[in-house]
Structure formats: C-alpha cells, structure tokens
Write a structure and sequence with these properties.
The protein is built from seven helices and no strands. The chain is mostly helical and 218 residues long. The chain has one domain: Up-down Bundle (Methane Monooxygenase Hydroxylase, Chain G, domain 1). Helix 1 runs parallel beside helix 3 (74-107) and helix 1 (2-36) packs antiparallel against helix 4. The longest helix is centred in the N-terminal third of the chain and has 35 residues, at 2-36. The protein is elongated. The termini are far apart.
C-alpha cells in the first residue's frame, strides 16, 4: 500500500508541474503577443484558459482524494496542502496571462498604439523567471531557492514604479495615447501580481521544507 501511495504522490507532483508548464507557456505567449499586438494569439490564450482551470481542479480533486483515502500526517500532509496552494497560485497566474491577452485585444481598438517601454520587457522577463524559479524550488523542495525570490520581487517593484512614471509621461504628451497607456498600466500591474504569486509559491515551499512561515514580499 505504501508503494502505491508514493506512486500516487509522484503522479500528483507531475500533474502540478504540467499545470505549471501550461501557465508558463500561456504567460510567455501573452507577452510575445504584446510585442506585435498579435490579437490572433491573444484570442487563443483567452480560449485556452479553460484548460488551465480544468487542470487546477483536477489536481485539487486528486489531492483531496488522497487525503481522504490515505489520511496522511506530518510531511505528507504538508506536501498535499502545498499542492493545493500552488495549484491555486498557478491558476491565478494563468488568469493574469489571459488578462494581458484581453488588454492586447482591447488596445488594438484604441485611437493610437504605443510601443511598450523597454523596461516593460525587463519586468516581464523577471516575472517569468520568478515563476520558473518558484516551480524549481517546489521540485527540489529547496528553501534557499525559494528565498531568492525576495530579491527579484524588489526589482519587479522598482520596475513597476519606473514604468508608471514613463507611461504617464507618454499619456501627458499625446492625448490620443491615453487609453492605450491605461491598458499598458494594467499590464504592468498584472506582471507585478505574477511576481507576487511566484513569491507566494516560494513561501509555501519554505513552509513545506522548514515547517516555518516566512514572508518574501512584506
């Protein structure tokens, strides 16, 4: 019975990593679409969001089934609780990718478009790296990798402040660009939330490994 349980835990971990991969691809596609205002890819991202939702709920259901049947304790119970928490965070990041895609579609109907500032792509790259790092921390169950997210989160916050200033200046110099600037400010906010969700995953990993809670983005 124990061997079967260990195998089921392994399958559940694999399911969570597949969900993570789906979310990473959705976020990457959304950000690539932003470079060229690609509404076709943006529409595909919106339409495929249901697959991410289904994968999240499937992971949750399997976790609850294992808890009910195996009645795990100690580290196994913390692991299963972490799976549920991480699946929820990943599903929300998938929603953020969908949100970026919707803003791309909306922005193309504005009176004028804006070339996103270079710092936006720096912020996007950093947020993507944080998501990947958080998943690596989970796979390795490495609290130190998880803690490294705090430094990256500070950089994301600094880039958010910089971008808000740059985008507001663009809006002030050209009234036709105000609406698309608002869309880009929304994208900036979404990327900041992606970074926050990644640090949330890191915090769950730290708890899984150490049984202690730590805040990575106080």
């Amino acid at each position: 019975m124990r061997d079967l349980y260990v195998q089921q835990i392994g399958f559940l971990r694999d399911d969570l990593l597949r969900l993570g991969s789906m979310v990473e691809h959705a976020l990457n596609d959304a950000l690539r679409s932003l470079e060229t205002w690609d509404t076709i890819t943006a529409a595909q991202i919106v339409n495929s969001d249901v697959r991410i939702d289904e994968a999240r709920y499937a992971a949750e259901e399997e976790t609850y089934r294992l808890i009910a049947l195996q009645q795990p304790v100690a580290s196994d119970l913390r692991l299963l609780g972490t799976v549920i928490a991480v699946a929820t965070e990943l599903e929300r990041i998938g929603d953020y990718a969908c949100s970026i895609a919707r803003r791309i579609r909306r922005a193309t109907r504005r009176p004028a478009l804006v070339t996103p500032p270079a710092a936006l792509y720096d912020m996007a790259t950093l947020a993507q790296q944080m998501l990947h790092t958080s998943l690596e921390a989970f796979v390795r169950q490495d609290a130190n990798i998880a803690r490294s997210l705090a430094r990256d989160d500070e950089q994301v916050d600094a880039l958010e402040d910089q971008l808000r200033t740059e985008l507001i200046q663009i809006a002030q110099t050209d009234a036709q660009k105000v609406e698309v600037v608002i869309d880009l400010l929304d994208v900036v906010h979404v990327l900041e939330r992606v970074a926050d969700r990644a640090t949330n995953i890191g915090e769950r990993v730290i708890y899984l490994v150490t049984c202690m809670t730590e805040e990575l983005n106080p």
